[in-house]
Design goal:
TIM Barrel, alpha/beta, 9 helices, 266 residues
């Protein structure tokens, strides 16, 4: 059975970009049976009410194939409610934290707030998965981004921003005694995989990579249609891509996740 643990079905105010119904049509065409939907929607999915409303959008015959992540903030009450959703709704697959801003407003950017998240979850005895988008906010260089020169996106979100964020998450999980599983989403740097590998004997940690991060390098952004190859985290240099692909073949990367996330052209 094929599972895609990382898709963005949008819906809500962004249904013009994508919908749950259409994602299942694509999944069926590709032989993918189950999907895990990300919570950085508009509005974001962070409460039981949001979960209830979200599940109303799922075709009844696909309820056993649809799963959703609950977004987390640094608020204790919100985290308690998120954990309750995971406990009470079989379609809630786990929690998602954005340790750096990507798309939407669901971000826990400061390390102290991330520390608070793991500490609260440990106190609640949460033993599920927390999936994390790892890009350290203060290492991002938005001023370098020039849409007329798309390859600047890779420079504005450098490798070290991901690597340092992955290092932070592993460190914080250890210190908090977090009993669940840390999952590093769409890993794009072989150095990040190395950090995960070294941490496996100490904590429960997994990572995933996308097809685009193991097949394409940042030179794709030099093409006439280079703007279409803009994503977070960005494409990397050829040497990094080749090493990442090697790690995937060797089984050091646990999941292939598409990060299917359509945006409107223009």
């Amino acid at each position: 059975m094929y599972i895609d643990p990382h898709v963005h079905c949008r819906d809500g105010k962004q249904s013009y970009k994508e919908t749950i119904k259409h994602v299942f049509e694509i999944a069926d065409a590709q032989g993918v049976k189950k999907i895990f939907d990300m919570p950085n929607t508009d509005p974001p999915i962070t409460t039981e009410e949001h979960i209830i409303e979200r599940l109303k959008l799922v075709p009844e015959k696909r309820m056993n194939d649809y799963f959703v992540w609950v977004g987390v903030t640094a608020g204790e009450d919100q985290l308690r409610e998120a954990v309750k959703c995971w406990e009470n709704y079989k379609n809630v697959i786990g929690l998602k934290m954005f340790a750096g801003k990507s798309v939407g407003d669901l971000t826990v950017a400061e390390k102290e707030d991330q520390k608070k998240v793991y500490k609260i979850l440990a106190g609640l005895g949460y033993k599920g998965v927390i999936a994390v988008h790892c890009e350290k906010e203060n290492l991002l260089k938005g001023e370098l981004w020039d849409p007329k020169n798309p390859i600047t996106h890779s420079k504005s979100r450098p490798k070290r921003a991901e690597i340092k964020s992955v290092k932070d998450q592993i460190e914080l999980v250890k210190k908090a005694g977090f009993p669940g599983t840390l999952h590093i989403c769409h890993i794009s740097c072989p150095e990040s995989v190395g950090l995960v590998e070294r941490a496996r004997h100490e904590i429960s940690v997994t990572c995933g990579a996308t097809p685009h991060h193991v097949l394409w390098d940042q030179k794709m952004q030099k093409r006439p249609d280079g703007l279409l190859y803009k994503m977070n985290p960005p494409l990397r240099d050829k040497k990094s891509v080749e090493k990442l692909r090697e790690y995937l073949v060797k089984g050091k990367i646990d999941w292939v996740e598409t990060d299917h996330a359509p945006h409107q052209v223009g």
